[in-house]
Each structure stands twice: as C-alpha cells, then as structure tokens.
Design brief:
The two termini are 23 Å apart. The protein has 296 residues and is of the alpha/beta class. 48% of the residues lie in helices and 17% in strands. The longest helix is centred in the middle third of the chain and has 21 residues.
C-alpha cells in the first residue's frame, strides 16, 4: 500500500508529550538529551511536566512538536517506508529530517531559530489569525483582498476551513465581512501572531541565512511542500520553498489532493495529536488514516 507520512505543526502539543518515547530505549533517550544540550535548556522537563502556558510559548512549542515527531519516526525503524512525506508548517522540518534530507541536529537548530525569529516578529507587530468555517477559498481570498489592512489566506486546512492571518484590525474587519458573506463561523485563534503572512518578513530574512548555510540532501522520497503543494526531491528547490514558507500560505488541502492524485492510499500521522488525520478525512472520507505507533 502506497503510504504517505504526515507531520503536524503548532497546536498539537500537550503536557506529557514524548515521555513514553524518552523511556522507550537508550537511543531515543540520547536524542532527547542531545536536544536539551543543543537548545541550552531542558525542553524535556517542560514537555513531560511543565504547564500548558510553558508549553504554549512559540520557542518551546515548535521544538517540542519537532522532537516528538522526529524521534517517533526514528523509533519506527524499518517500518518507516514512506512513498511521500509532508508536514503542516513547522511539520515540514520534521518531515525533512524523517526523510533523511536534514540531519537531526541541523533540523532542531533551524526549528529553534525559526521559533525565536517568529516570536520576535510577533512582538514587533501585534497581529493575529482567525479560522473561517463554511466558505469556499475563493470567497475568502476575494474578501481579504478588499480589506485595506494586512490580511491574507494563511492555512488552507481542508475544504470549508481556511485560516486568515494579519494585523488585528485587518483580521477583525475581514471577520465581519466574511460573516456577512455567509461564513458559519469566524473564530479568532489564540496565537502569538500573524504566521504565514507578509508580517513574518523579518523572521523570513533572519531564517533565510540559516537555511542557506544548512546542508540539505535529497530525501528518500518526494516531499510535498507547503508553499505550492508540489512534490520535490531537489535540495536547492526544497531550500527555496522552506524560505518562502514563513510568509507564504500552508496549502494543506492541495497537498492532500496532490498526494491522492499521485496514488497515495494511506496516511500515517507522525507526532502528537490527530489533527492532520481529521483534515485528510475532510478532503477524502474513504482514504485510510492512522497514527504512527511503535510495536512493542
């Protein structure tokens, strides 16, 4: 069966995540301890027994989800046989490490740098995101384009669910117009800022240099990347798409559609939570989905 492995992004975290992986064997424990050294703080303490608020800080959340996903993928051993991989936003970095394009160490360093750069961009310009439910993508895009403040379509999660991102004024105005246009709900999200919008430009500039200096190899299978939902194996193109990702949209609906068109029959979510399995089912109810699990 042609299987795609998919990796979640921010929002999937929970206190206690990764504890079972840490205790699994010496190899997984070593990776977690290596991560503590690289990051310069004991992220494992926050993951296993911190508070929700501790875990919700972008600089903690992103490396935490990355570690859970990547170490789980490594623990799958020979059963990890992807025909394709993809990740939602941050999950793209996890997918690249799991598919052998990025080393564990380089991936973690980039994710930590990305999280800090995004946090800084959020603090520099108060901004937000909102989930728009029950409208088609085109209507949402059209209405966002009419608003004078910065507001753009940021996450194409599944048909009828699109997240918009921008300045607080821009998102507020768009929410009113979208509700008037027939959206079932326009729900402001509890996030630090306007991810995947032009307001992330300072973070993109900061991250670009780090990505350019990092070695990326050809992955063991194609990775369908967020910015245009197309499969890539060429390291130079993968880099360019990673750089564009911070200010570009996450085209998840289109990513799933692309994978289905390429003959994928099953999706395995690798990491905390089951958000992506739900989104895949909204694109195609008949496709098989599951969470990655380690056979004892």
């Amino acid at each position: 069966m042609k299987t795609a492995y998919i990796f979640p992004g921010q929002g999937a975290q929970f206190v206690g995540m990764g504890q079972d992986l840490y205790n699994l064997n010496e190899e997984t424990k070593t990776l977690f301890e290596q991560a503590n050294d690289i990051l310069g703080f004991r992220i494992t303490d926050i993951m296993f027994s911190g508070t929700d608020d501790d875990l919700k800080q972008t600089k903690v959340t992103q490396p935490a989800i990355f570690l859970h996903s990547v170490i789980l993928a490594k623990a799958l051993g020979d059963s990890f046989q992807p025909a394709m991989v993809a990740g939602h936003s941050l999950g793209e970095f996890s997918a690249l490490v799991a598919a052998g394009a990025l080393s564990f160490e380089d991936g973690l360093k980039l994710v930590a740098k990305r999280a800090n750069a995004m946090q800084k961009a959020c603090e520099a310009q108060p901004s937000t995101m909102a989930a728009i439910l029950g409208l088609d993508d085109e209507t949402v895009e059209k209405i966002c384009a009419q608003v004078e403040d910065v507001v753009v379509a940021a996450n194409y999660n599944c048909p009828g669910q699109l997240v918009i991102s921008g300045t607080i004024e821009g998102v507020d105005k768009a929410c009113v117009l979208l509700t008037e246009a027939g959206a079932k709900r326009a729900l402001k999200l509890n996030v630090g800022g306007a991810f995947h919008s032009p307001l992330m430009e300072p973070a993109k500039v900061e991250l670009q240099e780090a990505i350019e200096e990092t070695e990326i190899k050809s992955p063991i299978c194609p990775i369908v990347q967020n910015v245009d939902a197309k499969p890539y194996t060429d390291p130079a193109q993968i880099k360019a798409n990673l750089i564009a990702q911070l200010t570009g949209a996450v085209r998840w609906t289109q990513t799933v559609q692309q994978m289905l068109a390429d003959g994928i029959e099953a999706f395995v979510e690798v990491g905390p939570g089951n958000v992506l399995q739900g989104l895949v089912k909204k694109v195609d109810r008949s496709v098989q989905t599951s969470a990655a699990a380690i056979s004892e």
